[in-house]
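Tutorial, part two.
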Amino acid sequence: QAQLVESGGGLVQAGDSLRLSCRSSGGIYGAYTMGWFRQAPGQEREFVAAISWNGAETYYEDTVKGRFTISRQGASIGVALEMNNLRPEDTAVYYCAADQRQLSYKSTWYNRRWGDYWGQGTLVTVSS
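Running the prediction step on this input gives:
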């Protein structure tokens, strides 16, 4: 089955910035809500950010608000995550996800149980 492919992770110092990108490996068509999750060692995967199919609605986890920006990227249901002022606690494997469910200002499903498509992750390491 088609998957999403993340890129852009790396090793940076606290206060630096990174831009993560996500694209389809093929076979994914239509309008999808896109999102980013992350998983640190020994921790459960957690929600980071989400964006509606047309970019009209966005949601962010509280600790990344004002630092991270999620945006749509052209064709192939692409999505990016611009991460600024990175902190050591941001260290994790970051995963891109796509879900066919619509995202609106009343949505509550987005922070858990996404199921349509996932990437294999890209590692972000923030040193002190």
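The chain has a mean pLDDT of 93. In part three we will examine how such features are distributed along the chain.
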